[in-house]
């Protein structure tokens, strides 16, 4: 297990204890490393079993801290950050987000210079991956220097780092999702695009609920292969 400590604006310090990390080694030539973040209440091992079938990347599947989650009435479960509802109106848990983004950055910091890097995830993991990407673009981690909403963070990053315009992002959402409404996916894509993330693909899956299907997995793998310039094919 790994710990991450974050200081809040009030001067208090919170320690986040991350669970077990599962690593899936590539069956072919190691060309890329992808950190894949699970959804609320899940764990890294659930996704590592699926990703074992994909040969080209080194997949790192961490497990979020177990913590009380407001949407479950304070019941503890694995979560990358606290969430009160899915409307998007609640204040962001920036301490939790920053701790998770810093954890992702730490895992990727030891990769060789010739290895291509990426971050992805499902549901809450996808939201955390997007937040981590904006931290990467801005070069800022930690609430002491960056206490803003996710949208404000992206806007700050664009002002500081023009490379966001070419930063590749893939968002996938199912029209039948009854947990995180499709409109939230559209809103996320629009927000990212409006602050300068022009190299963004938003993929809609008709009838897809809050789960994964082979067609979506194929979409992600084909996108990664094309965007990262990976040599070889899936077997």
Mean pLDDT: 82
Overall form:
globular
Q: In percent, how helical is the residue content?
A: 25-40%
Radius of gyration: 17 Å
Structural class: alpha/beta
Write the H/E string, N to C: EEEEHEEEHEHHEHEH
Name the poorly predicted regions: 142-150
Features of the shown structure:
235 residues, alpha/beta, four-stranded mixed sheet, two-stranded antiparallel sheet, 6 helices
Question: Mind explaining what this structure looks like?
Answer:
With 235 residues, the protein is of the alpha/beta class. The protein is 33% helix and 22% strand. It has 6 helices and 10 strands; from the N terminus they run ββββαβββαβααβαβα. The protein has helices at residues 44-51, 94-108, 124-138, 150-160, 182-194, 214-228, and strands at residues 2-7, 13-18, 22-24, 32-37, 57-61, 66-69, 75-78, 116-121, 169-174, 200-205. The strands form 4 sheets. A 4-stranded mixed sheet has the order 3-5-4-8, with helices on both faces. Strands 1-2 form a two-stranded antiparallel sheet. Helix 3 (124-138) runs parallel beside helix 4 (150-160). Mean pLDDT is 82; it is low at 142-150.
Itemize the secondary structure elements and their pairings:
Blueprint: E1 2-7, E2 13-18, E3 22-24, E4 32-37, H1 44-51, E5 57-61, E6 66-69, E7 75-78, H2 94-108, E8 116-121, H3 124-138, H4 150-160, E9 169-174, H5 182-194, E10 200-205, H6 214-228
Parallel strand pairs: 4-5, 4-8, 9-10
Antiparallel strand pairs: 1-2, 3-5, 6-7
């Amino acid at each position: 297990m790994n710990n991450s400590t974050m200081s809040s604006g009030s001067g208090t310090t919170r320690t986040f204890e991350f669970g077990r990390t599962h690593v899936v080694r590539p069956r072919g030539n190691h060309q890329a490393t992808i950190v894949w973040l699970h959804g609320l209440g899940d764990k890294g091992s659930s996704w590592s079993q699926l990703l074992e079938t994909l040969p080209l990347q080194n997949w790192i599947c961490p497990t979020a801290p177990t913590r009380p989650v407001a949407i479950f009435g304070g019941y503890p479960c694995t979560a990358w950050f606290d969430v009160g509802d899915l409307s998007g109106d609640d204040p962001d848990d920036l301490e939790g987000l920053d701790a998770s983004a810093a954890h992702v950055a730490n895992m990727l910091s030891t990769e060789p210079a010739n290895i291509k890097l990426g971050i992805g995830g499902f549901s809450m993991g996808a939201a955390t991956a997007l937040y981590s990407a904006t931290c990467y673009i801005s070069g800022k981690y930690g609430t002491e220097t960056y206490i803003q909403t996710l949208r404000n963070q992206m806007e700050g990053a664009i002002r500081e780092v023009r490379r966001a315009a070419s930063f590749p992002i893939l968002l996938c959402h199912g029209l039948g999702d009854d947990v995180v409404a499709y409109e939230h996916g559209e809103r996320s894509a629009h927000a990212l695009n409006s602050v300068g993330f022009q190299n963004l693909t938003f993929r809609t899956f008709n009838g897809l609920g809050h789960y994964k299907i082979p067609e979506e997995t194929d979409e992600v793998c084909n996108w990664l292969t094309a965007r990262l310039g990976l040599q070889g094919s899936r077997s």
